[in-house]
Amino acid sequence: MFERFTKDARSVVEGALEHAREGGARTVGAEHLLLALLDREGGRASFALSALGLAERREPVRRDLAEARRRAGLTRADTDALADLGIDVTEIVSRVEEAHGVGALAGRHEGGGRRPRFDRGAKAVLERSLRIALAHRDRHIGDEHLLLALTALPGTPADVLADHGVTYATAAGVLYGPEHEGGMAQAG
């Protein structure tokens, strides 16, 4: 599938690997793909993010992703559901970090030098980006398809982007026009 990626999309994937390595992660997750997208300039995804006002808010997005990693990647919905059961995720994170250090739940490891592998979430983003590209009759997978996939799949990246006003509908509207804001999120 990687041969179908544009140069911009390949750069995002390579950037995600680098973010995972730098963060000491064992795996590349969907959040690493989002971080790499935020780093890029000049691609279609960068254009869409800028048009949606995210260019000025990249650092708050990065902070929100880092906070989610501290919670072991639990989404807002997960945290709310646990709160309904009387479980305070913030308290649990604090206690784990007291005992094991800050970021203990973030899935970091020391050393090893191994290339991080893609986790289930990142693989789902890559697969969904292919389906979105095909649904739009695009021959290649671009960084815009990665952005749309990140917004289409439930999880921390979609939550963080939505908190900053970027949803599948808004991104598709910028990239393909208002008539494409709807059902393409379900592509595939």
What this model shows, in words?
Keywords: Repeat. The protein is an all-alpha fold and 188 residues long. The protein has a single domain, classed as Clp, N-terminal domain (Double Clp-N motif). The protein is built from ten helices and two strands, in the order H-E-H-H-H-H-H-E-H-H-H-H. It has helices at 7-22, 30-39, 44-51, 58-70, 76-84, 89-100, 120-135, 143-152, 156-163, 168-176, and strands at 27-28, 117-118. Helix 2 (30-39) crosses helix 7 (120-135), helix 4 (58-70) packs antiparallel against helix 9 (156-163) and helix 8 runs antiparallel to helix 10. The longest helix is centred in the N-terminal third of the chain and has 16 residues, at 7-22. The two termini are 16 Å apart.
Q: Give the rounded overall mean pLDDT.
A: 85
| CATH architecture group name | Orthogonal Bundle
Q: Point out poorly predicted stretches.
A: none
Order of neighbouring strands in the sheet with most strands = 1-2
Largest sheet: 2 strands, parallel
* Percent range of helical residues: 55-70%
CATH topology: Double Clp-N motif
Write down the CATH class.
Mainly Alpha
Estimate what percentage of residues fall within beta strands.
under 5%
Q: Cα-atom Rg, whole angstroms?
A: 17 Å
Number of helices: 10
**What's the number of domains?**
1
What name goes with the CATH superfamily? Clp, N-terminal domain
Order of helices and strands: HEHHHHHEHHHH
End-to-end separation in angstroms reads 16 Å
Q: From the helix content, strand content and strand pairing, which structural class follows?
A: mainly alpha
- DSSP summary, beta strand count: 2
Shape call: globular
